[in-house]
């Protein structure tokens, strides 16, 4: 019998050099690696084996192409966040094809749109964002006023003030403790005081349900647009009250968006135009109130500068940009009708800037882009616009 062979190690001879060869894998293993290959997660040897296999296997090559295209979709350059205006566009597209059995009155559409936009913002924010600090700002007398609260506190404020419209329509009041005066500020303070704990994200549900209830109710009672809604110190017809609530919803949504760093565009131009029109129609009454308080110059008739019974002077308010238009504001009597023939002053403002002035977010001194004519009249009207604001 031959003797056993001496191993290389035992003979003291060097080991032969091992040259790496291509990785050989079965078809099923290579097919299972296609997903990792498409994500560039394979080792160099696996990548080489897969790519060599793809050159001779048609089904795997097709699958690899589909997987690579799918991976490309995972790296979109644009944000995947939904456009805040998407809901409005989808609803408009649906309604163009099939009218609702109970349509929302045209004068209630801005409120429906603005509450939907704010609800979409609230859907996106996190738990901690509900306690982010928010500064509510408005104008009183001759200067700005502010009140600190949170995102949840702002929604509680909207809930209690929107309830003034709900009460006029016979709906429930979320305020358990009755305020001394049913003004927006008094109701809000009463709600905050009555809460055992600071408002949290739980307030979104009641606010959302109430806003939906208001839209449903006015849709069923579409002819009730002149129903009076009391704000404590004054009244507005229902159609104007809901427009006022749409305006406040937008302004406070901007407050929230600023607090949580969320992009928030202005309302649709046709809705913005309606809000500006409401502010322009309220200016003569606001100007008369400031005169009674000694905060504005008396009308010219009172100073015997205009004959009794004349239409009085007007200020031309020109709104540029979104929702733009031209309004003639009577200066001498809230019951008068503005006239182009008796215009003594002209003020030009951007539409969004005018709304922020009316919300107390811009000072009267900084608001007007263009001014021409009677400086006293211009100052009084700009301050009257700022005095439209409230908590």
TrEMBL record:
What keyword terms does UniProt attach to this protein? Transcription, Transcription regulation
The yes or no answer to whether the keyword Mitochondrion is present is no
Q: Which domain of life is it from?
A: Bacteria
Secretion signal span: none
Q: Which residues form the Putative zinc-finger domain?
A: 31-61
InterPro entries associated with the record: Anti_sigma_zinc_sf, DinB/YfiT-like, Znf_put
Indicate what this protein is called per its UniProt record.
MDMPI N domain containing protein
Source organism per UniProt: Streptomyces phyllanthi
């Amino acid at each position: 019998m031959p003797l056993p062979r001496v191993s290389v190690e035992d003979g003291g001879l060097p080991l032969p050099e091992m040259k790496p060869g291509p990785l050989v894998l079965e078809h099923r293993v290579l097919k299972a690696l296609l997903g990792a290959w498409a994500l560039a997660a394979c080792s160099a040897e696996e990548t080489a084996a897969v790519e060599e296999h793809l050159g001779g296997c048609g089904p795997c090559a097709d699958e690899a192409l589909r997987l690579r295209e799918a991976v490309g979709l995972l790296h979109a350059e644009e944000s995947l966040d939904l456009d805040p205006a998407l809901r409005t566009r989808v609803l408009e597209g649906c309604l163009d094809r099939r009218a609702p059995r109970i349509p929302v009155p045209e004068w209630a559409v801005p409120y429906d749109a603005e509450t939907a936009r704010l609800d979409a913002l609230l859907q996106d924010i996190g738990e901690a964002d509900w306690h982010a600090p928010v500064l509510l700002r408005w104008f009183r007398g001759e200067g700005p006023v502010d009140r600190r609260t949170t995102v949840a506190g702002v929604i509680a404020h909207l809930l209690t003030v929107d309830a003034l419209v709900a009460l006029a329509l016979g709906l429930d009041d979320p305020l358990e403790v009755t305020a001394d005066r049913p003004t927006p500020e008094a109701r809000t303070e009463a709600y905050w005081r009555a809460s055992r704990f600071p408002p949290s994200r739980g307030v979104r549900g009641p606010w959302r349900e109430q806003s939906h209830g208001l839209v449903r109710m006015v849709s069923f009672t579409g002819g009730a647009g002149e129903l009076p809604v009391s704000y404590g110190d004054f009244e507005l017809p229902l159609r104007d009250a809901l427009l006022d609530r749409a305006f406040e919803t937008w302004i406070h949504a901007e407050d929230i968006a600023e607090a949580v760093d969320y992009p928030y565009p202005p309302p649709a131009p046709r809705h913005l135009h309606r809000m500006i029109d409401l502010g322009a129609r309220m200016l003569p009454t606001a100007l008369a109130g400031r005169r009674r308080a000694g905060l504005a110059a008396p009308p010219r008739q009172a100073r015997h500068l205009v004959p009794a019974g004349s239409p009085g002077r007007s200020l031309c308010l020109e709104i540029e940009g979104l929702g733009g238009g031209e309004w003639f504001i009577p200066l001498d009597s809230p019951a008068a009708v503005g006239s182009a023939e008796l215009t003594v002053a002209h003020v030009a403002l951007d539409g969004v800037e005018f709304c922020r002035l009316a919300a107390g977010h811009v000072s009267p001194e900084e608001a007007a882009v263009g001014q021409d004519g009677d400086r006293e009249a211009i100052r009084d009207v700009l301050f009257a616009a700022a005095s439209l604001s409230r908590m």
